[in-house]
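Revision sheet: structure tokens.
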Amino acid sequence: MPGMSETPNAARQVSDEPSPRRLLSSRKVYEGRIWDVVSDSFQLNDDGDTLVRDYIDHPGAVAVLPMNDDGDVLLLRQYRHPVGMDLWEIPAGLLDVEGEDFVVGAARELAEEADLVADRWNVLADFFNSPGSSSEAIRIYLARGLSEVPGHERHVRTDEEAEIELRWTPLDEAVRAVLDGRLHNPSAVVGVLAAAAARAGNFESLRPADAPWPAHPSQR
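Predicted:
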């Protein structure tokens, strides 16, 4: 704010960074079908009290915002049971294939959920979905140069995915849906707003698809 004195770190670039703390113990308290819950005991500093935190141990995920040549983005509607709602989302999925490249995982989800392949990929944003309760790290890609998966090669969607509805939406309309509180899926919200910001610079500021992702669990 005007008039406030600058701190010594005021000129530093804003950037999240690793902050190792003394881990005293770690144990699995719940083993789930997709992810586990672990309980860690640690100290913030050498003289600090022992703290215990339970959190979801997550393999991470990727999401894809498909954009066609007209600048429209593809949203898909899917039922999400924990919140009891049909949500407009973007193609996304877990990084649960051992050793799979991040972009390969994203391309797999794009093909399975949207019947599309892309020949241009960029990183839109990286974020933690709920860092107070989960280690889940998500990378969102912008996919362009789209073409359809041939009919005989398409993935057979089952369960909730069998109800998926696809809709091409102008990017500005998607932004309005976010700001009006009509879109709630975090990957869709972050992806749409990041794409709108990147569009202002003709997408030239976006990172390449193979940009480092040090926040992903496998890289830490």
